Amino acid sequence: MNGTVPGPDGRPRCGWCAAAPEFFAYHDAEWGFPVADDRRLFEKICLESFQSGLSWRTILAKRENFRTAFAGFDFDAVARFDDTDVARLMADAGIVRHRGKIAAVINNAVRCRALVAEEGSFAAFVWSFEPQEDRPAAPVRATSPASVALSAELKRRGWRFVGPTTVHAFLQAMGLVNEHAEGCAMRPVAAAARAAFTPPGAAA
């Protein structure tokens, strides 16, 4: 959704916040702010994969359940999940019970563990795809050159459910791009956070 809507304090927010009242808090505190923590990044890319075909409202409402079910998205722990864990997850009404997506999270945990061993951290790898642009927020886009490139590299490494649209939503949420709408009260706040942020792996 393009444009802005009034937030709870009367200041403008990104138009997509109008879809659910709980989106305002998520938008103001998380969306578009840079993240360097491996576990949070892994959690988010997994939740974006679960969102495929669903609404973010559904996933956000179940986020704490997902965290409990998937060991806090500790990819070392999830990589050790076996068929018993898959059965447990398929019986858990608190999450999205999609066998393919559950299997993808376990697979991706294994791949993430290998990636960290090779690259030093998941964060350093992800942030190496940060686009070198300060792009105006409109019009809203579903993919980007950075998401296409990161998606292709993840797939090459054996990751699943990481298409360019899923990955672009991940890049937006984790602050690798600032796609708050022009006029959104959080756009300059996110821009300032990005300016003060040193990407993992960057030279000191």
UniProtKB/TrEMBL annotation:
Signal peptide start-end: none
UniProt-listed Gene3D superfamilies: Hypothetical protein, domain 2
Any one Gene Ontology molecular-function term assigned to this protein's record: metal ion binding
One Pfam match: Adenine_glyco
InterPro entries per the UniProt record, alphabetical: Adenine_glyco, DNA-3mA_glycosylase, DNA_glycosylase
Positions contributing to Zn(2+) binding: 14, 27, 180, 184
Highest rank taxon of the organism: Bacteria
Coiled coil: none
GO biological process, any: base-excision repair
Keywords on record: Metal-binding, Zinc
Presence of the UniProt keyword Transferase in the record: no
Stated name of the protein: DNA-3-methyladenine glycosylase I
Organism: Meridianimarinicoccus roseus
